[in-house]
Amino acid sequence: MSSFCAKVFPTEPQAPSVKSAIPGPKSKDTVTDIEKHFEAKAAYFVGDYSKSIGNYIVDADGNTLLDLYMQIASIPLGYNNPAIIEAAGSKEMINALVNRPATGNFPSADFDSQIQRLVKYAPHGFPYVWTALSGSDANEWAFKTAFLWQADQDRNYAAFTKEEESSSMINSVPGCPVRSILSFRQSFHGRTFGALSTTRSKPIHKLDIPAFDWPTAPFPALTYPLEEHQKENDEEEQRCLKELEETIIAWKTKSPVAAVVVEPVQSEGGDNHASPKFFQGIRDITKKHRVLFIVDEVQTGVGATGHFWAHEAWNLTSPPDMMTFSKKAQTAGFFYGNPELWPRQPYRNFNTWIGDPAHIIIAGKIFEYVSENNLTASVQRVGKYIKEGLLKFQEAGHISRLRGVGTFIAFDLPTPEARDQFTAGARALGVNIGGCGVRSVRLRPCLLFEEKHADIFLDVVSKLFSK
Predict the structure, then answer these.
(1) What span, in angstroms and rounded, lies between the C-alpha atoms of 68 and 322?
(2) β-bridge partners, 113
(3) Roughly how many angstroms between the first and final C-alpha of the chain, as a whole number?
(4) Domains along the chain?
(5) Would you name the residues annotated as active-site residues?
(6) Which of 242, 246, 260 is nearest to 198 (CA)?
(7) In angstroms, how far apart are the furthest CA atoms of the chain?
(8) Contact present, 60 and 26 (Cβ < 8 Å)
């Protein structure tokens, strides 16, 4: 089989090379220097990105690791991909960086063409986009858009009243109405204030931060293997949908739900999956109660699940109202299909930059590259290969709840401590992976990850379990 990755990265290493402990002395010293001015307690090690290439990350101590974590799922095409380097060095890019426009007031002459490159690869039926700075920011804009739309519906698009205008200045009703965004337990939608009130994955994200009083509903806890527990899983999903609808109804008199937000796979919360039928149920319930449906594809978007956008695999009878994106897109924002979500007055959705034209240029190149090279098909093939390789470790009792779509794969270790020992042990053997949830390991390789890379990973897994 010819290797597309080898053509793109002819000098990519053939295997990891570990020269020191990870983190090594240079990584530790660099973190110490960084922390003189910048908090860096979460750093695993320090990367040398000028030397990293393809599927391999090189650290400050010269260790070369096969990277299945890829900057928390945000590098789509490998390190130092030539196509991205070319786009980064273009005159268009230089213009965007040197003269960064205040897009809301002074969009650049080429901004329309940049936006069209994004919309070309949007999910079907989503001709509109709003750009943002990060995944959290994208979700904040989507929430705000939902609130604005609901308010317009309630006042039947009438002009603002004097009472609404004056009360908004003191954070009071009716100008600041009581409304909410409903999210699911174990969800993660970001760390900014509105997004954090919908995040429910780990206490460390939320402790000490004031939060909105917003509702939550259960996300299905599926039993694996799926094919052996279809009846129980169907019942679990129906239970969660029933509670979702009951919660929306109950909150109508307390803080009406403007939108329901959901991840196709609850990533930070433990790589929790649900069936297309469950997501169709959410779509049906939200339409029934005039609640907007937001799909958060910040982590699942741009190919990793074997579809360009994960929710495309659901075959919904009608699309979501908004879909947020970031990470592998290297920019952020949300796509939407209904022009009524477009605020009628200027400055309703607004800030100085409204995203970053430089990263929009990169996103356009990424989207084009993924589509033209049919990388989603490769991801489906390689993902199947990885899961088949991991299955023997599950059958031997080393791991459990093996799950995933495409190369968006996870499995569980017996305890949180065992998971942490596993990820640290993998790094020591030259493979960089990450954790999620309480005791899960998540794989987030780039889209050019191939069977030869999977074999290296699976060999490291075998070594870890043979100790």
Answers:
(1) 29
(2) none
(3) 33
(4) 106-155+176-372 (3.40.640.10)
(5) 188, 296, 327, 352
(6) 260
(7) 72
(8) yes
Left if phi > 0, otherwise alpha if psi is -120 to 50, otherwise beta: which for 372? alpha
Beta bridge mates, 130: 334
Residue 39 class from Cβ within 10 Å (0-12 exposed, 13-18 middle, 19+ buried)? exposed
pLDDT beneath 70: ranges in the chain: 1-2
Give the per-residue pLDDT at 97. Answer: 97
Find, among 425, 459, 271, 85, the residue nearest to 433 by Cα. Answer: 425
DSSP secondary structure of 282-326: HHHHHHHTT-EEEEE-TTTTTTTTSSSSGGGGG--SS--SEEEE-
Do 329 and 306 touch, CB atoms closer than 8 A?
no
Say how far apart CA 303 and CA 444 lie, in whole Å: 11
Q: Report helix angle 451-466 to 416-428, nearest 10.
A: 120
Residue 43: both structure tokens together: 């750093």
Helix (H) or strand (E) holding 429: none
CA dist., res. 198 & res. 139, Å (int): 10
Q: What is the pLDDT of residues 301-352, one digit of tens each?
A: 999 999 999 999 999 999 999 999 999 999 999 999 999 999 999 999 999 9
What pLDDT does 1 receive? 47
Residue type, 330: Q
Rounded to whole angstroms, the Cα distance separating 269 from 189 reads: 10
- State the Cα angle at 4 between 3 and 10, rounded to 5°: 80
Task: Region of 347 please: left (phi>0), alpha (psi -120 to 50) or beta.
Answer: left
Query: Which amino acid makes up residue 286?
Result: T
Report yes or no: 306 and 376 within 8 Å, Cβ to Cβ: yes
Q: Counting Cβ atoms within 10 Å, is residue 383 exposed (0-12), middle (13-18) or buried (19+)?
A: buried
Instruction: Dump the DSSP string for 202-224.
Output: -HHHHTT-------EEPPP---S
